[in-house]
Every structure is written in structure tokens, then in C-alpha cells.
């Protein structure tokens, strides 16, 4: 019988995120590492396979763009749009309405999106985006997100296959959080939903 942790990707990814970021206590991290490697050797650690795929994709993006940062500026987006790459661009609006994501071209290079939340007037030290399923199950936290200083929005640039995983596998709830010191406050909530294929 396989390990129950292998059948619960959100919890497994949350634990792996805590381990990799150093948030997990040292004693717990040692036990987690041993258990993770043992499951990986049996082919029962899908979260490890996912993060390795993500790592390789990040390296690929780095060779194409020169950096891999969370959030992009409008100028960076415009340069990529003018590059000749196969790109789908969407404006997600101001987070007041759900956004339906259409089927994506399998040959897509990048999926670029704009989130129109003006963060210029907010008083904060950090901006994080916490992603969950529609049932509230944790998926991922994107930390220290950058935004564009000209309009206050932030832009995401996602490599094609990763966009398919991130936006076409189910409804996702992304909470935009700002923090100052120990205080955190939600300033917007974005809901993305995969649109059914017309076929």
C-alpha cells in the first residue's frame, strides 16, 4: 500500500515548501527528508517530481528571459510580446469577478496575465500571493511579488506547459496579501476557472 501522503498533493506540497524554505523545524525536517527520499526511491513522491519539473522549467525560463522573479513589469512584458514567441495574453481585471481561462495552445511558449490591483498606495513591506483550491486546500505561496510602478498592477509570465497545469486543472483561489512587520492583510482575491473546450 502506498503512503497516504502521496495521495494528497496540496498537503505534500505545503510540507515540501516549508522544508525547502527553512520554515520547518530542524528535527521535523530531518525526519521529513528521510521519509521523502524513501518514498521518492519507491516512486511514491509526486510532489518531488512536480518540484523537479518546476525547477527544470525555471532554468529553461532563465535561459530565455535572463531571470526568474515573481511578478514582472509592463516593460518586461512588452519586450516578451515583441520577441516573436507564441504568447497568450489576458487581463484578469481587478479581482472583482472570476476569470475564465480558455483552452491553451499546446505549442504555447508563454501565458502572460495582468492582475489590475493597484498596490502603489498600500503601506507594506512584502506582497505575497497565496494560492488555494476552491475547497481551501493550500497549493503554493508566491513570496515577495513585484508589481509595475507605472500602474500598480502585477504581471505574471508563465511558460506554456506550466500554465496548463496552473490554470487548466481546476478552479484556483489566489489571495493577494500585504504585510508589514508581523501583520498581514488581504487586499484582493482572484478566482480563475478553466473554461470548457468547445469540442
Quick overview:
This protein has helices at 9-21, 26-41, 46-65, 74-81, 160-168; strands at 87-91, 99-101, 110-115, 126-133, 138-142, 154-159, 172-180, 183-194. The chain is α/β, with parallel strands linked by helices and 199 residues long.
Structure description:
The protein has 5 helices and 8 strands. A 5-stranded mixed beta sheet has the order 2-8-7-4-5. Strands 1-3-6 form a 3-stranded mixed beta sheet. Strand 7 and strand 8 form a beta hairpin. The N terminus is likely disordered. By secondary structure, the chain is α/β, with parallel strands linked by helices.
What is the ordering of alpha helices and beta strands?
Answer: HHHHEEEEEEHEE
How would you classify the helix and strand content by structural class? Answer: alpha/beta
Percent helix range = 25-40%
The major sheet is characterized as:
5 strands, mixed
Query: Strand fraction band?
Result: 25-35%
User: How many individual helices?
Assistant: 5
**Annotation, overall tally of beta strands:** 8
Radius of gyration: 18 Å
Strand order of the largest sheet: 2-8-7-4-5
Low-confidence stretches: 1-10, 63-69
Mean of all residue-level pLDDT scores: 79
What best-fitting shape do the alpha-carbon axes yield? Answer: globular
